[in-house]
Amino acid sequence: MRTLTKFLAVLSALAASVAGAQEYPAKGPVKLVIGFAAGGGTDAIARSLNTRMGEILKQSVLVENRPSAGGIVATEAVAKSAPDGYTVSFNVNTHAINQALYPKLPYDTERDLRGVTLIGSLGQTLAAHPSAEANTLQQFLKLEAADSNKKRLVANGGVGSPGHLAAAYLESLAGVKFTHVPYRGAGPGIIDVIGGQVPYILSTTAGLMPHIRSGKLKAIAVTSPERSPLMPNVPTIAESGFPGYDMDTWIAMFVPKATPVPIIRILHEATLEALKSPQVKERIESQAGRIIGGSPEQLDALVAEDIKRYTKIVKDFGIKAE
Q1: What Cα–Cα distance (Å) separates residue 303 from each residue in 99, 259, 278, 306?
Q2: CA 250 to CA 282: how far, in whole Å?
Q3: 8 Å CB contact between 190 and 207
Q4: N or C: the chain end with fewer CB closer than 10 Å?
Q5: Tell me: the pLDDT tens digits for 154-193?
Q6: What separation in angstroms does the CA of 89 have from each of 100, 306, 310?
Q7: Contact (Cβ atoms closer than 8 angstroms) between residue 83 and residue 260
Q8: What is the number of other CB atoms lying within 10 angstroms of the CB of residue 99?
């Protein structure tokens, strides 16, 4: 009898899932929830995608900004929302970094959320003030950091930011020490490097690009596995002595764990179709990004792998959340 009851319960849940997928997304607008302020690179990409996704889904796809606590507030809102496909996390790799950095989150990244689509990745760049001594990565690594000039001062967008973790990972591979200078966002850090207060910075290529083009900063190396089309003459960290190094900032979409697979499939296929749009492609490439379009399973595997990688970096370097 118990076996029959369980079977009927599973059958009922499956029927409800199929019915929900057949209706989706007719019941209302789909929200892409972003943990960053409007006007930034991630926001710009979301706003190029949402228009095309809305056309494909024949339903409004809205962008909702909840900028607070490094994306934790926005991710929590999605994790605790109804698993019906109408509330979607539009996130970057802080999604995995936060799980590694914070001992207690109001959700569990792997237990409470599942992937929809790995949209793409945004490059990061190690750049410097024009007067900085190093012009190449190897020159930078060979600097004497222990002297009074603190030659390996590296600015980043905050403790636990993608730039901070990318620099710490390079430290571990190179066996050298940097003096990390965290800011509350990349903007203030860029201003100080341009002003000569700090010689180096590791941050998003898109944020640094205007200043590199104007000559206010010089690019040393990029974190991508391949050279950036925007700076084809700037080598990657991987080709500068660290094969396999890849610390780009990925962009992806997530939903609550209990969201039915048929609904995830609809969202995933709509995203893949939207990524074919020339306008979306141009927007991502203008942010020094590349389109990936990975499956939900590939995304979940990437998150699990990155949580392990970032946890090791956080532990090895004693990184503490601000």
Answers
A1: 10, 18, 28, 5
A2: 17
A3: yes
A4: N
A5: 999 888 889 999 999 999 999 999 999 998 888 899 999 9
A6: 19, 18, 21
A7: yes
A8: 20
Do the beta carbons of residue 222 and residue 237 sit within 8 Å? Answer: yes
Total-model pTM: 0.85
* Tokens of residue 37, six digits: 């302020």
Residue with the two structure tokens 């490059």: 123
Residue 44 predicted with pLDDT over 90? no
Q: Which residue has the tokens 């990524």?
A: 275
Pick 17-122+249-317's CATH classification: 3.40.190.150, 3.20.20.140, 3.20.20.70, 3.40.630.10: 3.40.190.150
Cα 122 to Cα 105: distance, rounded to the nearest angstrom: 26
Q: What's the CA gap between 264 and 285, in Å, rounded? A: 26
Q: Do domains 17-122+249-317 and 124-240 have the same CATH topology?
A: yes
| Six-digit token string for 193 | 């490097």
Report residue 39 as tokens: 């006007």
Instruction: Look up residue 88 and give its two tokens.
Output: 């979607």
